[in-house]
Amino acid sequence: MSRWSRGEADIEQMLASGELxxxxxxxxxGSLWLARAASTLADAQGIAVSGPNSAxxxxxxxxRFACAGLLAQQGLRATTSGGHYAIQRAVLQxxxxxxxxxxxxxxxxxxxxxxxxxxxTVEQQEADEAITRGRAILEAASKLLDxxxxx
Length: 151
Fold this sequence. Notes:
two-stranded antiparallel ribbon; 6 helices
């Protein structure tokens, strides 16, 4: 399929295994995901000082929404069996190193979401770094979106 010239075999395998599924119509409009990412990133920025743990999680969500937008624009969506890791794999295979920070953020968010000890915390500097990473991912996704076409 020409839609996925880079990483085509990986995407086809993820579709076959049920980690990704095809979507059409309004579900294949990535711009809505990017708008949601921008709003969520602004929310993260707004609470970075008072709630760095929550700011980190919101920055991660914003990055995830931006990545999901790229997939949606291609007529793809992660399934519950593929989850966030499927999003990570799909964007890395197709769009490269600009999306490397998403994996770092995903792993850290998992530690925060499922901590070994309940006092796992994020300092404001780490939250600020996550917001910066989320913004870079959103910018990269925005540049790519128009080149993917709407399926």
